[in-house]
Design goal:
Elements (H helix, E strand, L loop, with lengths): L3 H7 L1 E9 L5 H11 L5 H13 L15 H6 L6 E6 L3 E7 L7 H8 L4 E7 L6 H12 L4 E7 L8 H17 L4 E6 L23 H7 L13 E2 L2 E3 L11 E5 L4 E3 L3 E5 L3 E10 L2 E3 L1 E3 L3 E6 L10 E4 L6 E11 L5 E2 L3 E6 L2 E15 L4 E4 L3 E2 L4 E13 L11 E5 L6 E7 L7 H7 L8
Amino acid sequence: MTTTAEQLSATTLLRFATAGSVDDGKSTLVGRLLHDSKSVLTDQLEAVEQASRGRGQEAPDLALLTDGLRAEREQGITIDVAYRYFATTRRRFILADTPGHVQYTRNMVTGASTAELAVVLVDARNGVVEQTRRHAAVAALLRVPHVVLAVNKMDLVDYAEPVFAAIAEEFTAYAASLGVPEITAIPISALAGDNVVEPSAHMDWYGGPTVLEHLETVPVSHDLTACHARFPVQYVIRPQTAEHPDYRGYAGQIAAGVFRVGESVSVLPSGRTTTITGIDALGGHVDIAWAPQSVTLRLADDIDISRGDLIAPANDAPPVTQDVEATVCHVADQPLSVGQRVLLKHTTRTVKAIVKDIPSRLTLDDLSQHPAPGQLVANDIGRVVVRTAEPLALDAYEDSRRTGSFLLIDPADGTTLSAGMAGAAFAVAAETVQAADDDAAWDF
C-alpha cells in the first residue's frame, strides 16, 4: 500500500511566486489556496479566526495566513517575501508571496528569481495598471517561463465576461511583447473562492482550469539535465593517507547537465582539457551523474584546479571573459556607482571587480531607457558593465539561470549590492518592441 510520504516523494515540485498591486487581494488568494487545498493546520486557522474577530470580522480573513509580520497585519499589506510550502496529491509547491509596493521591487526579484511560474493579480475593477506592467516586466527579465494572470474580485463586477476578456487581452499582448512564452488568464474571486480551488458556479462562460488545477498540471520545465553541463568546483579533496595516497578529487554540486566517466572536459578559466576518470557519489563509484547531485569528479591529468573553477564539456564550454555586461536589480540601500570597487560572486567563485559603466536605468512603468544615470539606487534595474580582476566562465542568463546569474557584493562589509543577469535584458529582439512603440526602447 502506497503511503502519503511515498506519494509526495514521487510528485514533482513547482516553485511559483505571486505578485500584484496593493489591495488586489494577493494575500487573500494565497490564503484561499492554502485553506481550500487543506494545507492549513488547525492551530493556524484558529489564530486567524481569533485575529479576525479582534478586527470585528465575522468570517476569517484568509490573508492573515500569509501576512505574518505585525506591520503587515496592522496595515493589511505585504512587505516581506513570505515563503509557504504545501502539497497536493499531484504536486509539491514552494510559494513566494511578494510585495505589491513599488519600493519593494527588489523583493519580487528575490521571490521570482527561482520561480517557474508567476501569478500576477489584477483587480477586475481597475484593470491593468502600472504596477501590473512592472510585475510582467520583472517576470520577463527573470525568464519566468509561465505567467498566470489572475483577474480577481470578479464578484464586484457581476462576474462579467467582457470585463475579464478586455483585461486578459491587454495583459497578454503586453507580456507577449516582452517575450513571456506562456500566459494563462483565469477569472477568480479570492474572497468567495471562485475558480481558486473549486470551479465557479457564477462564471459558466469560463471553461478553463482553476488556479490550483493549473498549478498542478503546468509543465515543469526546470529539468537541469537538459541544460549545458556545468560543474563549479567547491572543494578539492586530497586525503594523502596511507589508504588514499594519490587521491585527488574535485567536489561540488552539478549546476546543470550530465557528466559521464570517459567524457572530455575543459577546466575554466584556464582552458586546460582532460578526461573524467571517475565519479564518486554517496560513498560509491558511478558512471554517470546529473544535476543537482553533489559528487566528486576525478580527472586524468593533474591540473591546477581550485575552488571557483568550472568544469564543462570540452565541446560545450561557456565563454571566458573579464568584461561582464548584464542587467542588475539593485537591492541595497546604498547606491551602486560608476567606478565603485565590488566583489562579484558567480557560482562558487568570488573575484574583485570594478563597475566600469552604468549605461542606462530601466523605468518599469513604460520600459523607457534613461541613459547614463551615473548610479543605481535601491529597487532600480539597469544595465551595467563590470570589469573583473580574473576571468570568469559565464553563461548568458537566458541560457542558464544558474550559471548566468551573479551577485555584486560590498567588499567592506559583505553586503549584497545587486543581483545580476548576464547577457541581454529581455527575450525578444529590440526591433520587435520598437516597431510597436519607438519611444519604448527597452533593449538598453
